[in-house]
Write a structure and sequence with these properties.
mainly beta
């Protein structure tokens, strides 16, 4: 795009500066990694030091070598898996099995399940807190958190929540874990020492929050909401200080500490990129991805974004009684989309 074109585009989108159109600041499609298989998918998790990408896919977690972008193994027998967390110093991983009401404890070198921890109903997001070496499994239908020791597997607490939990992040310095309460339009802060909800903050103007990411240096949460907004919340006082428009069907959020960019991936096939600057949050790019690409992970070393999606059967091909339902995933089409910064090749 020419400089004149950048100026026009910046004005049209309300971005305020032609600098946002510099090629090196813009995300673009790099490649597609075919995975295949059947069933749905959920969270993607990246261990940047170990150079691994973990993708929750139906009854297994698919494991990729990030540098080679090839599949190196699978963690099987994780029924209805939603999320995956890892404790590198313990060489253990933790996969939440939503259909079996359990978290699978995994030996990372071999990708074999060591044992399973019983949780509440439909564990979804799962996070590891490194200071206390405890795992938090957020139970969607039980509206609770199961907390257990990452080494021994001993359950240490069950934390009741005021509603249905969604994504969570860890704030080790503050001794808190933040979680979206989707059906109550609020964020809770859980004290890691007392295992109690210390704060519950409303997220107006956001509604039905899903994705969450964290900037620990500036105490900011980035929250993707289903009324097509991404919020920026100050964790020191619980106030929403900014919001920007995003697409529909948001599921995941991410934040890059080095670039100051926040991301919201949406099922409508869009990825919104916004820049944090104090109490300002400014959209710098709205990237067209592919329908269904609602979950993602960020590699902080390369700044690449990985999104999961598949091909779908067109609604008109479904029986009339099913045309109001979600489009069906075509078996064998599951894939990972990779987007990155810099000049296009």
């Amino acid at each position: 795009m020419s400089r004149v074109g950048c100026l026009i585009a910046a004005g049209f989108l309300g971005l305020g500066s032609a600098q946002t159109c510099r090629a090196q600041d813009q995300y673009h499609f790099l490649r597609e990694i075919r995975v295949g298989g059947e069933g749905g998918w959920d969270y993607l998790s990246i261990d940047a030091d170990a150079r691994r990408l973990y993708v929750a896919h139906a009854t297994k977690v698919v494991v990729f070598d990030l540098d080679k972008e090839t599949i190196i193994g699978e963690i099987t027998n994780t029924i209805g898996v939603h999320g995956f967390a890892f404790a590198p110093e313990l060489e253990r991983g933790f996969a939440s099995g939503g259909h079996e009401n359990a978290v699978s404890v995994v030996d990372l070198p071999t990708l074999q399940i060591i044992y399973k921890i019983n949780t509440g109903q439909n564990p979804d997001c799962v996070v590891f807190e490194p200071e206390t070496r405890q795992v938090y499994a957020f139970n969607g239908r039980s509206q609770s958190v199961t907390v257990f020791d990452a080494s021994s597997g001993k359950v240490t607490a069950t934390v009741p929540l005021p509603g249905k939990p969604e994504f969570a992040v860890v704030d080790t310095k503050a001794g808190r874990i933040y979680d979206n309460i989707e059906d109550q339009n609020e964020v809770v802060a859980i004290d890691i020492k007392t295992h109690r909800v210390a704060n519950a903050w409303p997220i107006d103007p956001g509604q039905s929050a899903s994705g969450m990411a964290f900037d620990p240096a500036h105490h900011r949460l980035f929250i993707g909401c289903h009324n097509s907004l991404m919020l920026m919340l100050n964790t020191k006082n619980g106030r929403v200080v900014a919001s920007v428009p995003i697409g529909s069907g948001v599921d995941a959020s991410a934040f890059d500490e080095k670039t100051g960019l926040a991301f919201a991936s949406c099922g409508d096939g869009s990825l919104t990129v916004a820049r944090e600057n104090g109490n300002l949050l400014t959209v710098v790019q709205k990237l067209i991805t592919q329908p269904g690409a609602r979950t993602m992970a960020l590699d902080p070393k390369t700044h690449n974004i990985y999104l999961a999606t598949a091909e779908f059967d067109a609604p008109q091909n479904a029986p009339p009684s099913q045309r109001h339902e979600r489009p069906k995933v075509i078996p064998g089409t599951f894939k990972i989309l990779v987007y990155g910064l810099g000049e296009k090749q």
